[in-house]
Design a protein that fits this description.
470 residues, alpha/beta, twelve-stranded mixed sheet, 39% helix, 16% strand
Length: 470
Amino acid sequence: DETLKEGENVHVFVDGHRLDMMSPTALANLDLTNRCNMKCPICFANAMDCGYVYEPDFDTVCKMMDALRNEKPIACTAIQFSGGEPTVYPKLVEVIAAAKEKKFAQVQIATNGIVFSKNYEKLKECAQAGLNTIYLQFDGLEDDIYMRSRGRKMMSVKEGVIENCRKLRQETGHSPSIVLVVTTVMGLNDHEIGAILKFAIKNRDVVRGVNYQPVAFTGRVTNEEVSQGRITLTDVAKRICEDTGYTTMDDWYPVPTVAGISNYASIILGQNKITFPTHPHCGLATYFFISEDGSKVIPLPSFMKVEEFVKGLDEIAAIAEKKKFKKLTALKVRKLLLQCLIEEKMPEGLTKNGLISTLLGIMSKKSKDTLAGFSWGMMYVGAMHFQDHYNYDFERVKRCSIHYVTPDCRIIPFCAYNSGIELRQEVEKKFSISLSEWKEKNKAEYDQTVGEIKKNYPIVPKDEEEAPKE
């Protein structure tokens, strides 16, 4: 919408029809650069091949973050720095520190892991600046998979990030948590869906979640390729059930299931909190409780009546909204939890009251003390299916809660930025400079980027060794 002023949200127009955004920004993506130290064939942001460099300067990035924090009626509280490869951004540590100064509760970075695997000090600096989560690209456990998806062996890199986070935790008592992000393609890595989850559980001291992302087909692909590679959210859930035995299909819920919790919190606290009115087809998730030795993995819905709890919480929220002393309804929530928990199916050694205290403690300043006496670990496992031209749904775009922020402070839904009307290229071209101009101004960084790519891809045809042309 070209009539919008700076800082106003984008309303997407398709064939003259305006799609009003209906969800707040639960997580914002901020692309720091389109430069990368890899050249993956399945990447959204095709980095150096496009002939221009998109890399907002530090002041612009700060302005973009301010736009997110100033969103109304609900300010964005979670940001993910992405790219390209954000770890090659020259002021990465300063940007992370600035995000924390601006009161972002959750600061993430989406990375291939090369820098954090090789450069322990860089990881340490980012952690000290306030980095909460490493969103680690993780296609599988076999290098054959990475050769097909990324063009080089990568498993040692992934293990290096995990080991460095473990080392940092041992050295300082804290490190960013890791979420394994699995671009899932039928015929490429679907056979490892369950094994990846088991790997995450094995490394749960630093790995706190797994997010499977069924591949979105962008660029030039044939209908046959789409048919062969397409995998759905249901496929992912079924494979986890079949390959691990941890879950049944009844243990998975769409993302907006948790909206009632945020809605109730907003009413009780008297301030708007992030809710997730995302379209139910966008993603699904569950939560696992894991025994100390890792031998038992129990999904939360297996011992909790989720539908009954969600419905009951909505009813309590409606009552609370009309009450003067809203916090008194917390007793009703505790009673509801007692009704909805199935004690005989709960993790061994845990009672209803114990679990309720643990869950409430996690959300309070007493969380560390509460968890210290709780021997079961917890892990989030979810799947998010971003759209492409072959499955595009405008209702999903309207309800999208993962947004991009641009240098002119527009807020754009993920699936309008990367697919559908594909605003990414338009935005990047508007705020980029030519590769030759950037090279002239940043020769050392250019040489380093090209050097890294050549180092990461040592076998390159001679005609591809030259820098990309404009």
